[in-house]
Amino acid sequence: MGSAAVQMACVALGVVGLIGIVVCCAVPLWRVSAFTGSNIVTAERSQEGLWTTCVVQSTGQQQCKNFESLLDLGADRQAARALTIISGMLCCLSLLVLFCGSDFTTCVENEDVKPKISLMAGVGMLLAGILVIIPVSWFAHNTVRDFYSPLLSSSPRMELGACIFVGWAAGVLLIIAGGLLCCFSRPKQGNSGVNAKYYSNSASTPNKNYV
User: Is residue 129, in this structure, part of any structural domain at all?
Assistant: First the structure.
C-alpha cells in the first residue's frame, strides 16, 4: 500500500514536471527586457524564447517572429531546443512505463517484474530532470553574464524570464520523483529459496523402516 501511494505521488510530480517542460518549450519567456536606471517607462518590451522573439507594445499588442536560421542561433539556444525536447519525450515515456508497472494498476501481473519497471521509470525521470535543468542553467548563465558585461552596456539589457524558473522547478520535481521511485522500487525478497532448501533436505532424508 505504501509503495502504491509513493508511485501515485511520483505520477503526480511527473505530470507537473512534464507540464513545466512543455511550458518552457513553447512560451517565449526565457529572456525579457530589463528596466534599469532611467529606463523605467518604455513603449515596448522584448521577450525571447526557444523558437520565437516577441515585442509587446504598451497598448498590449504583441508581435512575434520566428528565428529564421537554425545556424544563426547561439549554442545555448540550440542545445536548449534539443535537450528540452528530449527531456519531454523521456518524461512521457517514463510516465507510461511507471503507469504500466505500478502497484495500483493491473497492466503487469508479475509482482517480481513490477519493481524493475518502476526502477526504470525512476531512472528515466531522473535523466529527464537533469536534461531540463542543464539548458535552463546554461541559458540563465549567459543571460546574467551579458547583463553585467560592460561591452554590452549600450544595448538593451535582458534579464531572466519566467520560463527559467519554471524549468528549474520542473527539473527539481522530476528529480524528486525519480529519486523516490529508485528508493522504493526494490525487488521483493521472498522465501522461495528457504522453501526449496527445506524440501531438498526433506527429500534427501532416508526413510527408516522399523521392525
Answer: yes
